[in-house]
Amino acid sequence: MPLFYALFFALLLIQPAQADISDSSLEKALPLLLEKDFSIKAQAIEQITQSGDPKAKAILEAMLAGQLFYHKKDKRIVFLKKIDNNYHMTHVLSNEDLGVIKKRKVKKIAINNQLRSQLRTAIAGLSLGHQDPAVRLEAINQMLNNLEAEQASIIKTYFEKETDSRVKDVMHIALSLTQLKQDDPEQQLQALEQLKANLHPSVRNRLRQLVEDEHTDAQVKQVASSYLNAIETKTYWYGWLETLFFGLSAGSVLVLAAIGLAITFGVMGVINMAHGELIMIGAYTTYVIQQLLPDFIEISLFIAIPAAFLVSGMVGIIIQQGVIRFLNGRPLETLLATFGVSLILQQAVRSIFSPLNRSVETPVWMSGSIEINSVLSLTLNRLYIIAFCLIVFAALYFILKKTSLGLQVRAVSQNRQMARAMGIRSEWVDAMTFGLGAGVAGVAGVALSQLTNVGPNLGQAYIIDSFMVVVFGGVGNLWGTLVGGLSLGVANKLLEPWSGAVLAKILVLVFIILFIQKHPRGLFPQKGRAVDNG
Amino acid sequence: MFIQNILKNDTGGKTFLLLLLAVAVIVPVFNLLLPADHPLHFSTYTVTLLGKYLTYALLAIAVDLVWGYLGILSLGHGAFFALGGYAMGIYLMRQIGDRGVYGNPELPDFMVFLNWESLPWFWLGFDHFWFAMLMVMLIPGLLAFIFGWLAFRSRVTGVYLSIITQALTYALMLAFYRNEMGFGGNNGLTDFKDILGFSLQDGGTRIGLFLVSALALAAGYLACRAIVNSRLGRVSVAIRDAENRVRFIGYRVDHVKLWVFTFSAILAGIAGALYVPQVGIINPNEFSPLNSIEIVIWVAIGGRATLYGAVMGALLVNYAKSYFTAALPEVWLFALGALFVLVTIFLAKGLAGVFQRFGQNKA
Prior knowledge:
By secondary structure, chain A is α+β, with helices and mostly antiparallel strands. Chain A has helices spanning 2-19, 24-29, 38-50, 56-64, 113-128, 133-145, 149-161, 165-180, 185-195, 201-212, 218-267, 275-292, 297-322, 331-353, 380-402, 404-414, 416-421, 426-449, 458-473, 478-499, 501-518, and strands spanning 68-71, 77-83, 86-91, 97-101, 106-108, 369-373, 376-379.
């Protein structure tokens, strides 16, 4: 009786396949996989490969990985994935989720070594023949890691047809690597000449094996080791370049976080401990805008930048008018009062948005990377952060140096009494300057929302770093902040591989503490005759 | 006689010391003699809580000495407090012996857990109480001395100094969070068993610690008052008000600052050492910059440059904190933040200033 049912269900499964002609060759081949005879299975694989069906590759890959099963009862072929100790079934054709199943109710479709190699070849062929160059590139790159002899001929056939230059390059490497595997020194030398100065990691690995292998021909060994050296020197320098890039992007984050402070602290002399919270408000503004406009994630950042500038700027002006104005000329008291403000803002955010981190979505155009060569690729979001930091810096520099507001700000910061005598409304200038610094903090928050978690503690994490950057760069000097921030970022990243992230940070802090002793006015001290009163 | 001399013209101080004496007598008596259901009975928990507040008060005095009388706003005094606490913590860890979870007589639990072979060199000697007590004063003192020597000599002042003290405590916090430092990583040191052979769980030990804290607070107060009244104290105040003029007259400003700062750090270290056995744990969070800023606000609320104001501020703010974080946790940060803002704008002299004005009006 059970056998009868099984046959019945198997028929049910096959029935629609025969009705639908387009899928027929794939669906006809599938039941053959259930046969015990490996030669029939081989035929089935052949048919699946020939079917031209987009699902074919996934099925073959699952089979190779041992994830293709069939249901013992109804003979349905399914993908089986283990998630949290449960086995989840997915239908191979419809990709429909069939739910959780006990493992003993299904049986794996067994393969032997011969089938394995057939599968690998078939998958290689399928992926190298794919329409999308990105898929082809990924496939060939994967093959490089584990190059089998039988794949070489396939690669050769597709190499002739290949149009995309990047794919073609990697295929070329693959072919040379297989040539290098031959025992003939003449062939090997030829292959080495092809691989000269190639930075692909698989080339480096293969050359290293070749140099370490005792059986290698002496001349081949010599050539290989000289090429290996050249490659390693190059890789080393590219490694430095990458560290520099990481450092510059980390430094840009520091500069973004600190540059608002460079205005309020550096130009106005106001210690604003709530600066971090103004950054946080900018990040939350980004979050709110994404919540309000869920269909415009791609452009949400461009709306968020001016919005965060306005929101943080307004909060900044309120802080200045409500608190700081009353503490004119008492920097330490200002420090305490603004710290109180920062606590209030943190708790306010906690009460409104909950203490949990909020996730801000990253637009698609921000993700991805530019591959310069196989050892150096620059991630786009880091690149954008560097660019954004420079734009913000340029804009601020322009405002302070070229606009009438900037002129008045500088006048008030240099000599308040004299500026007032010349008819500058110093209180209005104070409010605007503080608003500008606060607004820039908000803009930094938009950038940070793309990099870290947006939570009530976001600001606290950056406040000390920001002060360090401003003090290190030299108070009252925007250039100092830029140079200081970037160099601290680079220094941090240079130390990291040697000491670990936390120790690197400690070392940088200790360095700044010592640096301040030597140069109490920072990297670029403000020149002038101003002396502390007293 | 000597004490009377110190307290001449210090009505606030006299009142404070008398009150402290009264509390030091009443609390243990009510704890030991009254039955547990009596309305005036102090539970051992309350005694420990009060003992903790007293160590905070000592810390506040230390901050007031440098901020109120020397004009150095230290945002890193929590670091000295925590270092003193760690020195005490290491001694208490050594007293656990083989009663740890792993039962290793040589190594504390966390070192066994990290597969360490032997005790790191900086743990040696802490088996002895006197050595540990020396370190309680020496380590914060030494750090303050080196830090101050560098900073004051190169005339780092005002806001810059505040920010680098904050960087100091922040760097220490990051360092102590590392397991490799050998101070228990982010769990810190805890599970203490006894001190000088007395069990820390015992009510009597708790009262003893409370009394020692009260005594330390009184002694710390008298010492600070003596410094303030001395020539050193008068030069300090002059430095606070016009540093360059004092330097031009011929005083070694950096030396004065260095000695007062170091003394203050040692006081903070002692406070930390008394704090740890009462709360039963020390972890890197004590180094967090937020803690150090909170100390400053105790002093600001109580009133700067009065010493007894600092005590008042520490007790009031911490009592409010204990109350609010239990009853209305949401409100606490709002309240603390508002306190910062209102006190700095409207009460520049703190609560002590209000009392002084009140006293003058009456006179």
